[in-house]
């Protein structure tokens, strides 16, 4: 079990492209860490620095107690000496080798018996449902199949650290789900430290022991998935994680002086929940904090509830539930209801909000 430590890492591609900006993170041995964030936030660059494919401009990267990269101390361990398993979105399979030979390649370097190698190759290919394709060349495979071979090749050598950059991006929904559960049980079995890059928050939430949410090269929050979901440290995390995204009620003008009329009563109720009310700039509530009812039904608010009135803009059925989008002036909110609850476009509705489930943020977007 190996740990990874990033201390004040900076990566600049040019003077005006700072891909990673003073990033500090500790990956505990055996953890499954997802680097999560929007496109261009520096996830891949971080992974490439851990692997040694990219050099940091500043900071220290330590893996298993050994410094791999420390520009100020003039230390840099080359990627081939880092003994890490790597799978990138572009699979980098050897084009002149069959599937079987590709998976066997890393094992040959390990100098183990041929019989043992055959057993491991079979096992890895079976696990990734690629046994039937063993004699094919990469060019004869689909993108998703190539991705699975790349994963099998990495798993075969059982590295102590697995670095995965969107390794499931080319799989269809069913296979993706299956591979997620394979990866998760594999992690539990092997105990390897896994760093997994994704912009898919569902993937991160369902796989990781720890999630690092990044935005514009900086770390927004590093915590276990449920803490990220239930106690987002910043407004960015609150709106990036969760589907539908967290609803936000903000000030009405850029100076942050007035709350819009339809929200005034609710905000007064929100403020009662906060001992230090001056600091609140935005209030957030997730879809599950809201009970939706028609405005012509009798409204009976309990002590820990408040209400915002709006109109249905659209009803989006997903099967087991429906997402109802609601407009209040020019703001839009999302609520989830059972499919049996009938709402139609233009209908006047009351969003009854559970005040014990609200989130408050200050002017800098930090959780209050
Ligand atoms: P995605 O999810 O789209 O892959 P990402 O979060 O992995 O994005 P990075 O690929 O790490 O983001 O890129 C971070 C920033 O660095 C982006 O602004 C990107 O344009 C820039 N960048 C990445 N690679 C290079 C490069 N080789 N040269 C110059 N700029 C680069």
Explained architecture:
With 368 residues, the protein is an alpha+beta fold. It has two domains: 4-240, P-loop containing nucleotide triphosphate hydrolases (Rossmann fold, 3-Layer(aba) Sandwich), CATH 3.40.50; 247-362, OB fold (Dihydrolipoamide Acetyltransferase, E2P) (Beta Barrel), CATH 2.40.50. Helices cover 25% and strands 32% of the residues. It has nine helices and 19 strands. It has helices spanning 43-51, 99-108, 114-127, 143-156, 173-190, 201-207, 225-230, 235-240, 264-272; strands spanning 4-14, 17-27, 32-36, 58-63, 66-70, 75-76, 85-87, 161-165, 193-198, 210-215, 218-223, 247-250, 282-285, 290-294, 305-317, 322-328, 331-337, 348-354, 358-361. The strands form four sheets. It has a six-stranded mixed sheet with strand order 7-8-9-3-10-11, sandwiched between helices. A five-stranded antiparallel sheet has the order 2-1-4-5-6, covered by helices on one side. The chain is globular and about 75 Å long. The two termini are 37 Å apart. The model has no long low-confidence stretch (mean pLDDT 88). Bound molecules: adenosine-5'-triphosphate (ATP). Adenosine-5'-triphosphate binds next to strand 2 and helix 1.
């Amino acid at each position: 079990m190996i740990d990874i430590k990033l201390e004040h890492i900076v990566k600049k591609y040019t003077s005006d492209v700072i891909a990673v900006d003073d990033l500090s993170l500790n990956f505990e041995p055996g953890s499954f860490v997802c680097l999560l964030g929007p496109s261009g936030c520096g996830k891949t660059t971080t992974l490439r620095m851990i692997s040694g494919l990219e050099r940091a401009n500043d900071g220290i990267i330590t893996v298993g107690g050994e410094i791999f990269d420390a520009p100020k101390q003039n230390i840099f361990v080359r990627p081939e000496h880092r003994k890490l398993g790597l799978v990138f979105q572009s699979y980098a399979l050897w084009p002149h080798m069959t599937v079987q030979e590709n998976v066997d390649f890393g094992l040959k370097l390990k100098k183990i018996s041929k019989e043992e190698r055959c057993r491991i190759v079979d096992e890895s290919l079976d696990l990734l449902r690629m046994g039937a394709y063993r004699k094919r060349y990469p060019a004869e495979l689909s993108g998703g199949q190539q991705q699975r071979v790349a994963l099998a090749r990495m798993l075969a050598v059982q590295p102590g650290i697995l670095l995965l950059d969107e390794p499931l991006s080319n799989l269809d929904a069913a296979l993706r789900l299956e591979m997620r559960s394979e990866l998760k049980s594999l992690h539990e079995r092997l105990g390897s430290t896994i760093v997994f890059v994704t912009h898919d928050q569902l993937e991160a939430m369902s796989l990781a022991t720890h999630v690092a949410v990044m935005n514009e090269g900086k770390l927004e929050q590093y915590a276990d998935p449920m803490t990220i979901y239930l106690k987002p440290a910043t407004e960015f995390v609150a709106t990036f994680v969760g589907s539908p995204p967290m609803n936000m009620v903000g000030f009405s003008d850029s100076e942050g002086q007035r709350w819009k009329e339809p929200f005034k009563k609710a905000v007064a109720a929100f403020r009662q929940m906060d001992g230090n009310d001056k600091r609140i700039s935005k209030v957030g509530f997730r879809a599950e904090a809201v009970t939706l009812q028609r405005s012509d039904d009798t409204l009976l608010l309990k002590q820990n509830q408040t209400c915002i009135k709006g109109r249905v803009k659209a009803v989006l059925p997903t099967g087991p539930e429906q997402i109802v989008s609601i407009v209040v002036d020019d703001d839009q909110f999302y609520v989830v209801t059972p499919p049996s609850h009938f709402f139609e476009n233009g209908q006047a509705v009351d969003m009854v909000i559970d005040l014990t489930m609200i989130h408050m943020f200050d002017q800098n977007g930090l959780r209050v």
